Amino acid sequence: MSSEKDQYDRAQRKQALVLIVDDHKLTRELLKTYLRGVEFATIEAENGQEALSKLASHLPDLVILDLLMPLLDGFEVCRQIKENPRTALLPVIVATGLDDFDAKMKALEAGADDFIHKPVNEQELLMRVKNHLRIKQLTDDLENAENVIVALIRTVEAKDPYTRGHSERVAKYARKMAESLKMDDSRMQVLRRAAMLHDLGKIGLDDAIIRSPDKLTNEEREKVHNHPSIGIEIIKSLSFLSDVLDPIRAHHERFDGTGYPARLARDKIPVEARIIAVADTYDALTTDRPYRKAVDQKAAFAEMEASAASGQLDPNLVAKFIEVMAREERESPESQDENGRS
Fold first, then answer.
1. 158-173 b/e with 16+ CB inside 10 Å = b?
2. Which residue numbers delimit the HD-GYP domain (predicted)?
3. Tens digit of pLDDT for each residue in 177-205?
4. Domains of the chain
5. Are 278 and 317 in contact (CB under 8 A)?
């Protein structure tokens, strides 16, 4: 994952930066001529060692790499690029005069993303570079989005040390349920992000309310009931999070229609919100809070079944959650060791 400085440097650039690595000066000059213009800026290296040095001081958007070079060949340069978390997502286009199957396989094993044959055709080069940069932009957007989510979560957790890690655990439990329900990948991503951000609105609550070991007053309870709406206000301007608004808004609705903020019931509550409610309840029961100690899994399951019977949680999803968690417990190495000794 790239650093904040790398992301800032990229944002400041108006042109995509391409690193050209080739031991032949004429080849480097030709590639620079093809690429230079409104869209691309270039830097160059004449061998593998210089390429790695340039990568340490610059983070380009794409690398064009020769294979046969002195000091450090292109195979090793590519391998090191892909093994470094900072540069692992950089597209690497191998430009080579080799038409050897084994060499291509070796380059692919090292992490090469594409090939272009020498002598390089200008139109083909521009097409391949633009295609890989388009894909990389999508990857960068996703990385930036995830960084925003993590930053928002850390802000919430800074207010309450008891809930540190809560959002990640709720997301983990929610994903287990989604997999058992065979949700498609796009819905699972919405669910994961909503689970990660479900308590974001607690940023707007007083620390004294969040950490209070005592029963809340009616006024304090009303403020707590507003936290889903506060969370929506914070993220509604972030277009990449538009799909999570409804699940976050509804994660405190009750299955019987007596929850908040809109008193939705049954299938009027988004299934993602119902899943988050189940996962949230389990994590709240099995971790220490200011107002009570954690309970073990068996006791947590019993309380969740009681909550389903009283109309708080979706009974089918509670049953599914218990089934998934119990199966995971049975299949764990620790459980199998115990069974082997009995």
1. eebeebeebbbbbbeb
2. 141-337
3. 999 999 999 999 999 999 998 888 877 76
4. 4-139 (3.40.50.2300), 159-341 (1.10.3210.10)
5. yes
